[in-house]
Structure formats: structure tokens, C-alpha cells
Design brief:
Elements lengths: L13 H8 L2 E4 L2 E4 L4 H10 L5 H12 L2 H26 L6 H12 L3 E7 L2 E7 L4 H18 L6 E3 L8 E3 L18 H23 L1
Antiparallel strand pairs: 1-2, 3-4, 5-6
This protein binds zinc ion (ZN).
Zinc ion binds next to loops.
């Protein structure tokens, strides 16, 4: 089978790549893992159209029957994300990144789809072909915008939120380039605040139930 040749691309925006990094985030002072299972991680990738849904689902099915491979895939996703995080932290702090993190990102970048020219009704178009593991492909796509941002000459715009309770990775697009928080209004951002509230509520509700017991 020829792996899906597509007439579209799956360009990942830098913001989405940073969202990926922030799937491991501080909430109320502790680090929270939002990609806890392989399924959760694949869902995250799928929701952002990082690769073809059909390829992703095929990978999911294969992994469902192979717990060891599934576990390996999840740790690979975590590993690449955490390496990208370390690299962005290093860039933001103007210090060298750990060589192990660079090696991990470089390994992820090697898995790319093949760019091909294809005939089209009005001439030629540029298509792509997926050849390797779809998860590797997705990780390469997620890593690429971060690498481009580092290469852009504006890498000083890559920031870590100054709020010690947040530490989100973000890109400062403000005209002055002096943003220190991921969200000016609240840093935190409202979604995060809402999650905090929901969590607190749930905790309180849980306590009540315990109390009734
Ligand atoms: Zn923040």
C-alpha cells in the first residue's frame, strides 16, 4: 500500500507546538501530565490534524494489541516533548541546552515525510508521502516549528512565563517584545484558572462525600 499521498499539508503552528510542550504543566504548584495514556496522546495529535487521521487510527489499532509497543510509544512522545521543553527553557534562559535533549530533538526531526512532485490538472503540485511510523512523523512535525523559531533570529521571543505557578512556554508576539507572562490579563490564562476552579470544586465535593461516609 502506498501510504496516503495527500493534497494538503499538516503544518503545525508554533502556538500548537508550544501547546504540545505545555501538555506537561504546573497546576496549583505541581506538575500535571495531560498525556497520561497512549490513547490520550494520540487523541491530542489527531485533534490538531498533525498527521492523517487514518494513519493515526491504524497506529492506534496496532498499539492496542501490543502493550509493550504502546508503552514505548507513549514514552517516546513524552521524551521528545520534554526534550523540546528543555531546549526552549535553555533558549529562554540564554544557556546551553543539555546535549541529550538536543540529540532527542534531532532524532525526532529525522522522521519526515517525503516531499514529491505530482502531476496536477493545472501543472504540477507538491505532495507528500508518509513512509515511516506515523507517531514519529507527528513528533517531527511538532518539533519543526520550534526549531524554525530558534532559527528565525527571534529566538529571544521564546519565553517561559514568569509566573512561578505557571511556567508555560510561549512566544512573545507583542510589538515591544517585553512580555513576561503567557497571558497579560491573568497569567494565568483563563482556561487554566477555570481548570483550577473545577478541580477545587471536585476536591471539595469529594471531601463532602467522604465526610458523609
Ligand atoms: Zn503563565
Amino acid at each position: 500500500m502506498r501510504n496516503g499521498v495527500a493534497s494538503h499539508d499538516h503544518e503545525v503552528a508554533l502556538e500548537e507546538a508550544f501547546d504540545f510542550l505545555n501538555t506537561y504543566e504546573l497546576e496549583a504548584g505541581s506538575w500535571v501530565e495531560h498525556l497520561q495514556t497512549t490513547d490520550q496522546a494520540l487523541d491530542w495529535i489527531k485533534a490538531r490534524d498533525v498527521i492523517h487521521a487514518a494513519l493515526l487510527e491504524a497506529a492506534r489499532q496496532k498499539l492496542a494489541n501490543d502493550p509493550v509497543a504502546s508503552e514505548r510509544t507513549l514514552s517516546k512522545i513524552h521524551r521528545v516533548r520534554d526534550a523540546l521543553r528543555k531546549v526552549t527553557y535553555a533558549v529562554a534562559d540564554d544557556r546551553p541546552a543539555p546535549t541529550s535533549a538536543l540529540a532527542e530533538v534531532n532524532r525526532a526531526l529525522r522522521a519526515r515525510e517525503i516531499i514529491e512532485l505530482e502531476p496536477a490538472a493545472d501543472g504540477i503540485r507538491v505532495g507528500h508521502r508518509h513512509v515511516g511510523d506515523p507517531v514519529d512523523d507527528a513528533l517531527a512535525r511538532l518539533a519543526q516549528p520550534v526549531v524554525q523559531a530558534i532559527a528565525s533570529g527571534n529566538e529571544d521571543r521564546i519565553r517561559i512565563c514568569a509566573n512561578d505557578e505557571c511556567r508555560w512556554v510561549f512566544y512573545d508576539e507583542s510589538p515591544t517584545g517585553r512580555r513576561r507572562w503567557c497571558d497579560m490579563a491573568t497569567c494565568g490564562n483563563r482556561a487554566k484558572a477555570a481548570r483550577h476552579r473545577a478541580k477545587r470544586k471536585a476536591a471539595e465535593a469529594g471531601q463532602e462525600i467522604e465526610f458523609l461516609d
